[in-house]
Specification:
93 residues, alpha+beta, Alpha-Beta Plaits, 4-stranded antiparallel sheet, globular
Length: 93
Amino acid sequence: MITAIVFVHAETPRIPEVAEAIAAIDGVSEVYSVTGTIDLIVLVRARRNDDVAEIVADKLNKVPGVVDTETHIAFRALSKHDLEAAFSLGYDD
């Protein structure tokens, strides 16, 4: 499974509607409205790179109100559980 993290710049008055429209796209697992220089962070999960390209380029980028996107492909995923195990000193709570 490929995970892509997409930074989305949206028209400011349309951010809530843009977020809802993006969340409805098949392959989008999560949408976060965030502070800072970007408006939304979108997690896309797909089986192939071509599927990611279709979701981002053919669907997400065409949502009315999306101004710009920047896509990052994750090459390794670590969960909180994985990190806790990696840094564990062997003590049980």
